[in-house]
Amino acid sequence: MTGEIGSDACFTDRIEPGVDELVVNVGPSHPSTHGVCRVIVHLDGEVVTKAEPVIGYLHRGIEKMAENRTYLQVVPLTDRLDYVGSMYANWAYCRTVERLAGIQVPERAEYLRVIVCEMQRIASHMMSLGSAAADTGAATMFIYAFDQREKVIEAFEELCGARLTYNYVRPGGVSFEIPEGWTERVLQFCRDHRDGLELMDRLFFGNVITRDRMKHVGVLSPEDAVAWGASGPVARGSGVNWDLRKHDPYSVYPRFDFDVPTGSNGDCYDRARVRLFECYESCRIIEQAISQMQPGPIRTPGLPRLLAPRPGDAYDHIESARGALGVYLVSDGSVRPYRMKVRSPAFCNLALLPLLAEGHMLSDLVVILGSLDPVFGEVDR
Amino acid sequence: MWGKGILTGMRITMRNMLRGPITVKYPYERLEIPERARWAVAPKYDGEGKPKCTACMACVRACPDHILDLEFTTREDKSKHIERYSYEIGACMMCGLCVEACPFDAIEMSHDYELARLDPAQLTYDLLADVDAAPVKRARPATAPKAEAAPDEPASTEAAPAEAAPADPVGKEATDE
Questions:
Q1: Which domains does chain A have, with CATH numbers?
Q2: Closest C-alpha to B99, from B160, B38, B162
Q3: Closest Cα to residue A108, out of A298, A317, A265, A255?
Q4: Do A93 and A79 form a contact (C-beta atoms < 8 A)?
Q5: How confident is the model over A296-309, as a mean pLDDT?
Q6: Is the pLDDT score of A372 beyond 50?
Q7: Closest CA to A357 of A134, A131, A50
Q8: Distance, CA of A102 to CA of A95 (rounded, Å)
Q9: Do A73 and B62 touch (CB under 8 A)?
Q10: Which residue, of A247, A267, B33, B48, has the fewest CB within 10 Å?
């Protein structure tokens, strides 16, 4: 048969004559596509011969919008990039602005940023694991993971007043001092979270159904991971030991003792399990950061309301929950950025989908997509 | 193996069954909102019920989405009268930058979260209308505004051209703590 989907002929929804294939359009509004991912899948029976992600359904032009706003006004926009891990985009953007304008950040602000970003990593990984579990039919794991995530989000709401779009990290510091008793509650959460992780590890990763669904599915070799620019848990699941917190240390990360968990097989199971182990490391970092943090200012004093950095450009990147998140800014000396470019890890990781899905069943496509953990706010921007 | 697995499963089930509900029945029961929760912008009033707003326009300039609009007239004695201070909640992303920019503590992010409206026209409303603005306590700087001079200077982080409105009554280096 001949597959014709709509009129957008730029994608390969056509089948060569004589080839016995079926074209299935997955998404863009499908619960298993983690957002608005559309995948054009070529099927031979039930086996995927070609899978092509079609992006752009959540494109809001944030990079262009940033050109019409002052440096501070861009911060709420960066919240909307990766809406599962808003703190990372805040921080990556603010680091670039600070590098561009030569701002020194107080030490306490750096510690607060580390604490909130490691909590954000837990929340983001819980979201990823929960939805990956829901894709494989494990509803209990979904609830357990989201229960843990809810505790982080409640702590964030108490800290900065919003549950998802925090607007917390600002150029030159952070917006709020921590409330009374907050650190104790966070430390208590870290203790409880380890028990929760233990339970989830046994419940989900020890489950024979999970193993059957995720092991040896979507195997990514370390060479391919490097060649395709994968980063974060996707690269580390393949055994590529690359973490910007260790290998290009920024902020106060060199002061903490933590490990970088890596997988060995590079399949969906390893990618998911790396995320689980990263949550343990995040708990360790949070505890060390809280014990090392000293009182002090949380914002650079004497900073003007309207930043106007010198003409020039700057790039800085951080390790987000999805990988290396970088922001490139060009300044022409005015109060608005001349150009902003976001290097989003979700976009680079999603590009692996055709490579990984080929030769697997259609139902495995959902698991592979879940293990790549794309967030479409960040893919499309 | 089977017996142990079932027992473990039942233990978790029993523990969750006996712990009571975590959800609340929303319209009848409400969760407590944290102190810093950011919802609709609301004006603040002083002890006598007069608005604390001085019509300095700092919030209007700070808003990333240009959804705040303040129209005022200046009388001969330099006092201001706010004609209308409109707010388009349908486009507000509740970032809180207007509240942080306010040098007079005249607006706040309220805890009013039930914002659904039947009519889209109700999504734009006036925070203040036809009221006298509060007098600015601090004296105006006597020097002329230096807005024109700034862009020609060698750019530095101090430079605040264009938007640095002459009406800004406080120093721009004020931090928001």
A1: 62-307 (1.10.645.10)
A2: B38
A3: A298
A4: no
A5: 85
A6: yes
A7: A50
A8: 10
A9: yes
A10: B48
Which regions of chain A does DSSP assign to beta strands (E)?
22-26, 38-44, 47-54, 169-170, 173-174, 312-319, 324-331, 337-343
pLDDT reported for residue A18: 67
Residue B1 amino acid letter: M
Q: Locate the chain A residue with the closest alpha carbon to B168.
A: A305
Among residues 39-98 of chain B, which lie with CB inside 8 Å of chain A?
Answer: 62, 64, 93-97
Rg (CA), chain B: 25
Dihedral angle sign, alpha carbons of residues A365, A370, A373, A374: positive
> Which of A156, A153, A176, A75 is CA-nearest to residue B93?
A75
Which of A271, A68, A86, A273 is CA-nearest to residue A164? A86
pTM: 0.83
**How many Å apart are CA A30 and CA A36, to the nearest integer?**
7
| Class of residue B111 by CB neighbours under 10 A (exposed 0-12, middle 13-18, buried 19+) | middle
pLDDT of residue A207: 84
Residue of A375, A372, A379 lying closest to A353 (CA atoms) = A372
**Looking at chain B from residue 92 to 131, which residues have their Cβ under 8 Å from any Cβ of chain A?**
93-97, 100-101, 109
Rounded CA-CA distance A86/A227 in Å is: 28
Q: Report which residue type is found at A195.
A: D
Q: How far apart are CA A370 and CA A131, in angstroms?
A: 7
- For residue A205, CA distances in Å to A34, A82, B37, B110 come to 21, 27, 37, 44
Q: Is B34 on the interface with A (CB under 8 A)?
A: yes
Q: Is B38 left (phi over 0), alpha (psi -120 to 50) or beta?
A: beta
Supply the pLDDT for residue B4.
80
